[in-house]
Amino acid sequence: MLIQLLVIILSVEQFLRGQQFVRGFTPFKVQYIVNIENNLNNDNLDVHCHEYKQRYIDYGSHHLLKNANYSITLKASVLFDVRKITCTLTCFLNCNTTVRFRAFFSDPKFIDNECGGRHCFFKLEDDGIYLYNIKKTKYAKYMMWWNNSSIKEFDYNDL
């Protein structure tokens, strides 16, 4: 019994020192940040984010001028909390479009492959929404503005 307990403790310690802990995924409750930056040419943007946890959480509507950003800070345990944040973006002058997308999902694949850690950086350009990919150290197109029929589903095979 004592040996089994020691093996479990050593396994947890190795897990915490291993790649998973560094990449963003951790079984413990930690802080995550979702950042949305308006980089549209000559256009303002309305951002309205919400989530369903145990109850509906409305983060409110925010008006972003060009080069302004909006951040959401949340705490989640990937193993014990299911957190999904959905944002609706509306631009008015040039694109006249509304699009809805999933900005955060407390899933190890999303955290490590999409966000690439504990910070999800979205940049809104005229041709679409970009997400910073930490593995490639650059922004990658996440979604096009005119593809607003549903929430983006993640294809992990493309990464």
Automatic annotation (TrEMBL):
Q: Which UniProt keywords apply?
A: Secreted, Self-incompatibility, Signal
Domain of life of the organism in this record?
A: Eukaryota
Q: Which GO terms describe its cellular component?
A: extracellular region
Which Gene Ontology BP terms does the record give? rejection of self pollen
The compartments listed are: Secreted
Secretion signal, residue range per the UniProt entry: 1-18
UniProt lists the family membership as follows: Belongs to the plant self-incompatibility (S1) protein family.
State what protein this is by name. S-protein homolog
Instruction: Give the originating organism.
Output: Saponaria officinalis (Common soapwort)
* Lineage summary: Eukaryota, Viridiplantae, Streptophyta, Embryophyta, Tracheophyta
